[in-house]
């Protein structure tokens, strides 16, 4: 997809998917991809990364502030090939979660698209001369040299409504192919998640609840393979932490945020070489 630049600002306010706490997001035109809280801004590529089973966090240099669950917002921005934007987040405390949006990136990504335009000016893409991989033989992510951005994502859940799904996406039509795919959780995990202070802002309006005999979500599934598409949405957002476009074929098998961000850390070292 050709690079785009914002023409106008975009804002959102709402509860975090996990914390259930309110925060406000402002995305403005800029000359670089930066994130800030309380007037302190840094390049996205400068943040330390922390990824678990339920989201990706960016930790400010010095470790004094953490921005939680960044992947959907970054996916909405960079999935549209916008690489120059200033992201401002406001909320209470030293750990602030991004607004949960609609459990995906659909509405935010559509507004970003409508308020942006094609540009000939964008950061130079990262190109690889050799494969870069993280993980093991069971779960891994590998970035292969390519002349374009491409993702192949394989998931394998024992939950019957999910099972094995494979998505092969050529990097085009993000708004229709990837952005509408919502986050999901298994019903058997909900009690443990909420006891751990997670999924407190989730509902059937912004997430898919996977049960043994089917799924519950407002409006039903948007795609038969919505689960693999959402994992791809997450990966797009996590790869945004490189801070520049990536020209590679990324293959993820039974992966998640932790492995996504391990790959990002390795790819960042290529940018600094």
Describe how the helices and strands are arranged.
Layout: E1 4-6, E2 10-15, E3 22-29, E4 33-37, E5 40-43, E6 48-52, E7 55-59, E8 66-68, H1 71-78, E9 85-90, E10 95-97, H2 106-114, E11 116-118, E12 126-127, E13 132-135, E14 140-145, E15 150-156, E16 164-169, H3 174-177, E17 183-186, H4 190-195, E18 207-211, E19 214-216, H5 226-239, E20 246-253, H6 257-272
Parallel strand pairs: 4-9, 8-10, 12-20, 15-20, 17-18
Antiparallel strand pairs: 1-11, 2-3, 3-9, 4-5, 6-7, 7-8, 13-14, 14-20, 15-16, 18-19
Helix pairs in contact: 1-2, 1-5, 5-6
How many E-type strands?
Answer: 20
Q: For the record, what CATH class of the domain at 4-123 applies?
A: Alpha Beta
Shape: globular
Number of helices: 6
Regions with little confidence, pLDDT below 50 for 5+ residues: none
Structural class: alpha/beta
**What is the helical fraction, as a range of percent?**
10-25%
| CATH homologous superfamily classification of the domain at 4-123 | lpxc deacetylase, domain 1
Strand proportion, as a percent range, falls in 35-45%
Describe the structure.
With 273 residues, this protein is of the alpha/beta class. The protein has a domain of 120 residues: lpxc deacetylase, domain 1 (Ribosomal Protein S5, domain 2), CATH 3.30.230. A hairpin with a 6-residue loop joins strand 7 and strand 8. Helix 1 packs across helix 5. The model has no long low-confidence stretch (mean pLDDT 94).
